[in-house]
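cron nightly-structures :: item 1 of 1
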Amino acid sequence: MEAIIAKMKEQIAAICADIDKVDNKAAKARVRKATLELAKLGKEYRKASI
């Protein structure tokens, strides 16, 4: 459970680092990828917390 939370924090940090780079296509792609991974981690967290 703690590992999942740590991974979620890493993804959030990655999103925060690139979210302001509006004109950078590579940054946009990294943000999209990180948000998809964050959604997967959220589902995994929900399953583990039950």
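cron nightly-structures :: done
Helices lie at 2-18, 25-49.
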